[in-house]
Amino acid sequence: AAEVAAATAAHGGSFTRLESGSGVSDADLVLTLTEDDDADLPSPPPPTTSRAGDHANLPRGRASTERNDVVGAQRGGVGAQDDVVGEQDGGDESFRVSREDGAVVVEAACDQGLLYGFFHVARLGEAAFDGPDLVERHAPASGLRMLDHWDNVAVHAVMGQVERGYAGGSIFFADGKVRADLSRVEAYARLLASTGINRVAINNVNVHAREARLLTDDLPHVARIAAAFRPWGIRVHLSVSFAAPMTLGGLGTSDPLDPAVASWWRDAADRAWAEIPDFGGFVVKADSEGQPGPFAYGRDHADGANMLAAAVAPHGGIVHWRAFVYDHRQDWRDRSTDRARAAHDHFAPLDGRFAENVIVQVKYGPMDFQVREPVSPVIAAMPDTRVALELQVTQEYTGQQKHAVYLGRQWSEILNFDFAGPDRDDARHAPDSDATPKSDAAPGSDAAPNSADPSHALPPTSVAGIVARSGGIVAVSNAGDDEFWTGHPFAQANLYAYGRLTWDPTADPDALLDEWVALTFPDAAADVVHALHTILDESWETYERYTSPLGVGFMVRPGHHYGPDVDGYEYTPWGTYHFADRDGIGVDRTVATGTGYAGLYPEPWASLYESPATCPDELLLFFHHVPYTHVLHSGKTVIQHIYDTHFDGVERVESFVAAWDRVRGSLPDDGAADRADRVGLADRVGLADRVGLADRVAERLAEQLRSATEWRDQVNTYFYRKSGVPDERGRTIY
Ligand code: GCU
Questions:
Q1: How far is CA 720 from CA 401, 431, 580, 640, 727, in A?
Q2: N or C terminus of the chain with fewer C-beta within 10 Å?
Q3: Which residues does the UniProt record annotate as the domain Glycosyl hydrolase family 67 C-terminal (predicted)?
């Protein structure tokens, strides 16, 4: 409320916080805004150091006191309370926005709802004031909308400071400690709140020795970070090491069933909440890629997670227990072990055993954040467990923020995947579907449908429907101390779309991209906007075309995962293989002759994936080993598809480069350096040496073209040499 009041007052507007029980209206907090064409575009506090992607700009308008008399208060929210999903782990985050005679009123029961309503109006800009009178109620699909940072306090010898970070160093830590100046974190918090994020884990899931001490010695400093997030409705979580009772507590064991271990964790939790009253809880990567866990003591994941859950439960805390568990020391000769099965094999049998405050956090696919994977069957396999979906905003396997890849479409596809079957999925998108949210309702009518409330449009069997009911959505952040926040300035579109999709998983990802473009480049000429869309609209599909084909995945350089290496993982212990030989390619994951993975899905998906005749083309090689001459649904052979997509992918990147070259000279000055100068931030954030946005994008696009060309030539050459089948169009293959 304080933030909204400050932002509103700065523009001569009104904000009213009313005491509960005054009985005038049904909301506690009211913000009124009226359009004022004379007003300049205001920028709400706190000052940002962002150069672009300043998602939180206010509309061209200013608040007014005119309508203060129509508002009042009474604790109880703004709509029917029994279905307010935003309050499952915090306050009621919903808000109601109404427009009458060109004045806009936002009402909410809690601070957070008002803040989201404020950003809603800011996002709409002048459009908020146009059109007929309306009343809308908005609520998030889930109360848990989270970003995980894989930041280390110290600079790690192999991974650098931010594991899989492509945007510079950490915004939280520098010089081996929590930063003294957290102004960047304050700006980040505002940025995230404007998209709907309400939880952040600040440190890497691989918890090294230095980072483990965030839970003990550093708590007062973690509290400072929490204080920077708090005004924006964001709670802080920590990744913790399962071995902490030994490494930090000096105990001889971390056995979750040992009373001394449980007591150590209870004390640790008590100290954390004493220091940070709204602390969120723990994120745990256990028995995964060398991290310690309960297996060492013959215990299972439920034993481990529940012990931690008991420690945080008195404080209302959550344990996010990651399901990314597999054997990373397997023998490539052993064809019966399938990494894709691992999370399901480990976790599905434990369904029903996890405590109420444990959330099992499941990566979207069964492997590891590839550009294309089937949706993880684990999400549907644990109906008696709270499950969160884990996405990756940081572009580890999708071009490392050197390549322009807008991931909104991928996430939308995942969120709307329906375990009940593809027909159900299609029905959702039909124009006359019941699931289509209505956009407005009669003014003043409380009985009106909860329009624009996405929780009412999610099929219970879709990924979004399942996780919205239980564990929410989590993703690995892509932000760092880079002057553009995300390395590639266009990667901000991913941060934006991710937040918006956590609020409303039914949102159209193309419309979210439009929003981001309009908010980030508000003064851009039509040709600049056109260029942005040329580059970003189908950038996910483009990346897929020039990298690994038909869902087979990996083929990246081991270790850093950038650039092509078709056999890079083929004979390693990591369990990621394509099995290409002279006759064919792909992994047989069928029940009939393969690893049985296809059978982990409910029907009709199990049968659809089981047969190459019904398996979708884009996942064919994930589920089947087929000859190069196998004919896809598209009518092409597998080998010709590989050649065609790789040539086409590079041509598309060439068109991106050309599109940017045409407009880069006409980009408006974004004014960020001036803004930073005004608030004395220019030196601190290095804006003095800034590279202009146009140049930064051009430099990244040049690298994208180089890399895509390398991918094309290596992949095409590899499969030409393996198969001996020439390209039917006779193009150059080496
Ligand atoms: C990937 C990534 C690792 C990360 C891991 C995880 O494997 O390459 O850096 O630690 O995912 O999600 O835990």
A1: 30, 44, 12, 10, 8
A2: C
A3: 486-671, 695-731
How many other CB atoms are there within 10 angstroms of residue 131's CB atom?
Answer: 10
Instruction: Read off the pLDDT of each residue in 610-622 and give the average, rounded to a whole number.
Output: 98
Decide: helix, strand or coil at residue 262. helix
Which pLDDT band, with edges at 50, 70 and 90, does 639 fall under? very high
Residue nearest atom 12 of ligand 1, based on CA coordinates:
324
Collapse the DSSP code of 365 into the 3-class scheme (helix H, G, I; strand E, B; otherwise coil) and give the result: coil
**Which position has the higher pLDDT, 102 or 594?**
594
Ligand 1, closest atom to CA 159? Answer: 9
Collapsing DSSP to helix, strand or coil, 96 comes out as: strand
Instruction: Give yes or no for residue 75 having a pLDDT over 90.
Output: no
Q: Are 376 and 364 in contact (CB under 8 A)?
A: yes
For 593, residues 6+ apart whose C-beta sits below 8 A from its C-beta are none
CA 70 from centroid of its chain's CA atoms = 39
Interface predicted TM-score (ipTM) over 0.85: yes
Which residue's C-alpha comes closest to atom 11 of ligand 1?
368
Backbone angles phi, psi at 282, to 5 degrees: -110, 145
Judge whether 512 and 408 are in contact, CB under 8 Å: yes
Ligand 1 atom nearest the C-alpha of 390 is 12
Pocket of ligand 1 (CB under 6 A): 163-164, 205-206, 285, 324, 368, 396
Q: How many CA atoms lie within 13 A of 724 on its CB side?
A: 3
CA distance 616 to 608: 8
- Interhelix angle 219-229/259-275, nearest 10 degrees: 50
> How far, in Å, is the centroid of ligand 1 from the Cα of 686?
30
pLDDT at residue 433 tops 50: no
Q: Is 1.20.1530.20 the CATH classification of the domain at 145-437+448-507?
A: no
Going from N- to C-terminal start, the domains of the chain cover 2-138, 145-437+448-507, 521-587+625-734
Ligand 1 mutation pick, 159, 164, 362, max ligand atoms within 8 A of CB: 164
* Domain 521-587+625-734 CATH (choose: 3.40.50.170, 1.10.3210.10, 3.90.1330.10, 2.30.42.10): 3.90.1330.10
CA 22 centroid distance within chain: 40
